[in-house]
Structure formats: structure tokens, C-alpha cells
Amino acid sequence: GGVLAAGGLSAFTAGNTLPANSATKGYASQTITGVTATAVDYNTNTAGDTITSVGLTLTGDTTANTIKIAFNGAAPATCSDAGTFAAGSTTYTCLLSQPVDTATQFALVAS
């Protein structure tokens, strides 16, 4: 599937950062709590109408954290990937099914 980089206006909790981005498809807001994200990539199906996974790159070893994601204010669900730590960052691929046309807010919560 295609990859959509994180975009749109961003809302952040103090102490958490997300890289500047420029994307043709963005979401109205992103909220990152409890970690520092260096990349958030939205992966879609071949048709491009459904987000099938979210790729995350977080600073440091966050494999001991519980990573949860949500769209549109829904209750956050635990990421399906336990994370892989290498070279100072932890990467995740969280599987989900979210229609692109209704995705307006993304939230990542680490605890």
C-alpha cells in the first residue's frame, strides 16, 4: 500500500515532539503523549481509501512502554507490534483499519 506522511495542524503535549512535515494528505491534529516521535507514517491499502497500519519511530528504547493509538477520539487500542529497538530508536507497525476519508485526529499514548 501507499504511505502517507503525517500532516496538517499538530497539537502536542508539553515535552513531546514530532518532526515538521509536508504531506498532501494530513489530519486535523495529532497528539503524542509520553514519548518523542521522530516519524509517524500512515500506510494505506492499494486503493488508498483505508489506513491499514501506522508506522512509528520513537526516540530511545520504548519497548517496555505500552504503545496505544487511536483515531477521532476513540479509546486508544494497544499497538499490535511490541517494537524493535535499534540505533537509538524504537520502531513499530501498528495494524488497524481506518477509512481515510473519516480520519481527522490521530493520538499516540505511551505509558
Core attributes:
disordered N terminus; four-stranded mixed β-sheet; 48% strand; 111 residues; five-stranded antiparallel β-sheet; mainly beta; 0% helix
General description of the model:
By secondary structure, this protein is mainly beta. The chain contains no helices and nine strands. The strands form two sheets. Strands 1-3-4-8-7 form a five-stranded antiparallel sheet, with no helix packed on it. It is globular and about 35 Å long. The model is unreliable at 1-26 (pLDDT under 50).
Proportion of residues in extended strands: over 45%
Into which percent range does the helicity of residues fall?
Answer: under 10%
Secondary structure category: mainly beta
Q: Tally of extended strands?
A: 9
Output mean pLDDT. 77
Number of DSSP helical runs: 0
* String of helices and strands: EEEEEEEEE
The gyration radius over C-alpha positions equals: 13 Å
User: Strand order, biggest sheet?
Assistant: 1-3-4-8-7
